[in-house]
Each structure stands twice: as C-alpha cells, then as structure tokens.
Design goal:
By secondary structure, the chain is mostly beta strands. The chain is built from one helix and eight strands. The chain has a single domain, classed as Beta Barrel (Porin), CATH 2.40.160.
Length: 198
C-alpha cells in the first residue's frame, strides 16, 4: 500500500501545468549515485520546470528562479551486504544569474526505499560467493538536497548534488538512520519540449 501511494503521488506531481510564462526546458538526468565510499550505483530522473520568477537586483543583475518537480529512480549497493532501490520525488527551486553558466538548486523530497539485505551466502571450493539469501527491508525516506551545476548549452549540462535523507523503517524491528548520498551526472533535454508561448 505504501509503495502504491508514493508512486501515485509522484505521478500527480508531474501533471501540474506551468504558469503559462516562459520557463526552462524540461530535462532528463543520468548520474552516478551512492556515498562515494562503499555504496555504488546510478540514478535517472526527469526535471519538470513549472514556474519562473525573475528579480532584478540593485546592481542591475537579473536572477531567475525556477520551480521544478523531479521524479527519480535510483539504485545502489554493497554487493556482499545489500542492494537498494529507491523511488522518490523532489520539489525545489533552481536559481541562476542571467548570463552565467552556473546555477544552484535546493529541494525537499520523499520516497520509498527497498533494501535487499544479504542474510546468508554460500561459497564454492574456489572461495567465491555461490548464492545469497535476501531479506527485504522497507523504508520511507524524506530527503534534503543541494545541487550545483554548469550549463554547457541551454539544455545540456553537468551537476553535482548532495542528498541527505532519513531512513524511517516500516518494520518496528528496524532502527531509523541517516543516509548521505551524492550524485554526479549529466542533464539532457527531454524529447518533448515545451513551447515558449504555451
């Protein structure tokens, strides 16, 4: 039931229409995902930009802020210990100075984390792992993220993102814990582009 509710929530986020003004083009991202020490994986996400605010400062610089929604799917693992699959969604603000290639974002998110914990394994005569037995651990995971990136073109760029979440278990026998995760990836345009005057 929890998985279905989270997936429905993520799908509903993406159908909200933009404000009718020009916004940044929607993007898709592909990234390394893990803690950069002993958990390695990948993440794919879609970035839907819904509204733009533009502010002119006293020094005549212009700042663009875009409201975005990002559903994503991630995977990371420690092969001898566990594998994790995460379905999540973020909502946040992207800020960029006009004329600059650099930008930053701040977002809040939540999702479902399925962790397949290795509870036992067998080895063959060569000492290599032959088979594993898993136990499913399930978590609700709220997250806070900060991203810094650089546009290569108007629709393509690279980024580094730091995420910190709290694993809240569905099973009472498990403890909650913090989880820091990083992303290093590329953003590309989605095949369906928004028209500037829509």
């Amino acid at each position: 039931m929890q998985i279905r509710n989270i997936i429905c929530f993520l799908l509903l986020l993406t159908i909200f229409e933009s404000s009718g003004q020009e916004t940044k083009s929607n993007q898709i991202s592909f990234a390394y995902y893990g803690n950069a020490i002993n958990e390695q994986g990948a993440r794919i996400g879609a970035h839907f930009y819904k509204r733009r605010w533009t502010k002119e400062k006293k020094n005549e610089s212009i700042i663009h802020r875009d409201l975005f929604i990002q559903p994503n799917l991630g995977f990371y693992s420690r092969p001898l210990f566990y594998s994790s699959v995460q379905i999540a969604g973020d909502i946040g603000i992207r800020q960029q100075k006009e004329g600059s290639k650099w930008y930053q974002t701040l977002a809040l998110g939540a999702g479902y984390l399925a962790r397949f914990e290795v509870i036992s394994f067998t080895v063959d005569f060569k000492g290599e792992v032959d088979s594993k037995d898993y136990e499913l651990w399930e978590f609700f995971i709220p997250m806070l993220s900060y991203e810094i990136g650089r546009d290569i073109t108007d629709e393509i760029g690279w980024y580094f993102k730091f995420n910190y979440g709290l694993r809240l278990p569905f099973q009472e026998s498990q403890d909650q814990s913090g989880v820091p995760l990083v992303e290093l990836g590329m953003k590309l345009p989605l095949s369906f582009k928004k028209k500037a005057n829509e």
